[in-house]
Amino acid sequence: MTRRVVVFGLGGTIAMTADAGGGVVPALSAEQLVTAVPGLAETGITVDVVDFRRVPGASLSFEDIYDLGSAIEQKLSEGADGVVITQGTDTIEETAYLLDLAHERNEPVVVTGAMRNPTLAGADGPANVLAAIQTAASEVARGLGVVVAFADEIHAAARVRKTHTTSGYTFQSANGGPLGYVVEGMPRIVNRPATRVTVPAVSAPKPVEVAVIPMLLGDNGTALEAVADRVDGLVVAAFGVGHVPAAVVEVLRGLAERMPVVLASRTGAGSTLERTYAFPGSESDMLGRGLIPAGFLDQLKARILLRHLLSTGHDTAGIGDVFRRAGV
């Protein structure tokens, strides 16, 4: 049976060519990207193309991704077997997770891009697109939600991070490793997450703002106070397992009385703790003052989840319940 995959192009390095000044800008259409992929015709996969956006990854918005989610839902409802998204790598770890939160169907949605633009020797875009299409067309990828396919590795949207500015192997999953690999054109899944949390999107999400504030040596809360009246929710990227300086404890307590405040770790791997340390500013102290533990979600994923929950009308108690399920 012929499999049909829809490719949505959003721009990014994978779609860039040189301008008159010698720099590269998004210019290639999604169709041009797909046409340039060696070996695609031999797979027997039917590929439809949607030129959805042509912008750098850094300029994508929540509205862009919510619109994309609706367009993906329509294509899957019309019978597509899977979806591929090509975009700039700057925000893949965030856009993939936002899409994953609202994707309740079994069909695979695969996000990919490139670290080396098409004007460079060894451009990785064609290989990544081919692997993404093969993954999206595969039965073994069903039920995994949204994944990132890059350098022949398949990563869960909730785990993956961009870890290097230029390396072709920049996407890594520190907590648990990749879900699988593309081997000889076939996805092989070797690691399935025990849980996956979805939160349906709404037709008219509320406009909200969520900030991420890292804790720093000698922090006295100035940055926290600067954003306090301008956001609807806050993620604190704390030291280690969830520690903050004693000088910011009362500031955070006051903020947690006004809005949901999530306690994440700035380390990028491992879970926040809940009951190991007990000094002022420790994880147990801050959770006792009303902060919400992020668990294994890093600060960027925590922001995506918190903003999505606020925009879909969840209150602080409901937000805490979802984080406890999503952060395991």
Low-pLDDT segments, ≥5 res = none
Which strand order does the major sheet show? 4-1-5-6-7-8-11-12
CATH superfamily placement of the largest domain: L-asparaginase, N-terminal domain
Order of helices and strands: EEEHEHEHEHEEEEEEEHEHEHEHH
* Proportion of strand residues: 15-25%
First-residue to last-residue Cα separation: 38 Å
What would the principal axes of the Cα set say about the shape?
elongated
Secondary structural class: alpha/beta
Q: Percent of residues in helical segments? A: 25-40%
Main beta sheet, described?
Answer: 8 strands, mixed
Number of E-state strands: 16
Overall mean pLDDT: 95
User: Number of helical segments?
Assistant: 9
C-alpha Rg (nearest Å): 20 Å
Count structural domains.
2
CATH class placement of the largest domain: Alpha Beta
CATH topology of the largest domain: the name is Rossmann fold
Architecture per CATH nomenclature, i.e. the level-2 architecture of the largest domain: 3-Layer(aba) Sandwich
Please specify the SSE layout and strand pairing.
Elements (H helix, E strand, L loop, with lengths): L3 E6 L6 E3 L5 E3 L3 H6 L10 E6 L10 H16 L4 E5 L5 H11 L6 E4 L12 H12 L9 E5 L2 E4 L4 E2 L8 E2 L7 E4 L2 E4 L20 E5 L7 H6 L5 E6 L10 H10 L2 E5 L17 H6 L3 E2 L5 H13 L4 H11 L2
Parallel strand pairs: 1-4, 1-5, 5-6, 6-7, 13-14, 14-15, 15-16
Antiparallel strand pairs: 2-3, 7-8, 8-11, 9-10, 11-12
Helix pairs in contact: 2-3, 3-8
Organism: Kibdelosporangium aridum
Keywords: Hydrolase
Pfam families: Asparaginase (PF00710), Asparaginase_C (PF17763)
